[in-house]
Write the structure tokens for this entry.
Amino acid sequence: MICGVRSTFPGAKRRLRLEMNRTRRDFLSSASRSVAWAIISTALAGCAGSPNAKPKHAWNISTLAGHKPIRPAPGKVLFIAGQEAGHLGGRPSEGMGDGYLDHVPTRPGGFTLYCSVSGAADLGSMSRVCNLPALKDSVLHLSVSWVADSDLSTRDNNRLLTTGAFDKHIDRLAEWCAAQPRPILLRLGYEFDRGLPFPNFHYDPAYFAQGFRRIVDRFRVARADNVSTVLASTNFSGNLPTLTTEAFNRFYPGDDYVDWLGCSMWIPDAVDETIFNEARKRGKPVLLAETTPVKYNIGRSLHFPYYIGFSEPISPQAIWDNWHKPMIDFIKANADIIGAWHYIVANWSAESHWKWEYLFANCDARPWGNAEFLEIWNKHINSATFLQASSTLFHDIGFSRREKTESMLSV
């Protein structure tokens, strides 16, 4: 067969030899990855019985990816719109034509999705959002959990994560993320210190740091070097106890595993001092991970001083002046450390699953909920401080654009 190819097509033998060499390299690369996984998995498994132990040879794992965290230049803040696919819109043919992308002409610099590693993430749905042309030049803010918001039976997932029980889900998500042609802010164990209805309701500090490191290690082996990790607190006003330095240290996975710090921020002057202090001390950028104008309903032009019950009419300009302007002033005053702002554009009051939560029961945060407010929003959100989607955005935050390389993008 080779002789026939050679006599009919001059140079075919050389091309065949090159192809055989390439195939051999691919095989060796695959084999090397398999060997690396075997070694790393053994090291990780050996740590499962020690909740706060770091995996052996973690520094070798780190070298498997050319990791360079994304970070806007000081004074620039990535604007992220969220927090669900329906809030983003952009898909009228699928009944999702009443979201941010449908009403605001400026494309957001980032967008938010959620998933869990305690089960198989819906990568198909996530891919459909990521593949929207309007989001081509936007950063993905992916929030990942392993404990359910209100299901006590899932608290054992804290321990199970450290034993490898969810590794197959982690690996599948890691491969999907590695194939994305965009930078990703990966917020792991979001609002890790949530204290309602009791302290450490969600995440157990005895296992959290090890679980966080396990996820990151497996992402590194998957060569997801487009991923920058985020550790973000709850910072819920009135949520006691507040995050202390001692509590932060109990949860903290280590500087080698955390690229960004962050916190939610529902009220413009209610900052998580511990997170900001630690970020400045460690040289980490801060993500304002969840923000929304609680107490205000843009669509109905109402203010709820006590979240529920009594309300009073308020003008769109007053809503802006009372919540949005102070929030933006705070961001600009701390733009040396704040690298991204996630604004949740939901009409919380219209979503049944938020009716039980007094904080959001009457909130409508949609800029397009009122035409006058939308005009104010468009004027200010385009200020030079906020990074929106553009052909140069990824370069501006330190990420080299790359082509899609995996079929996982269309799963």
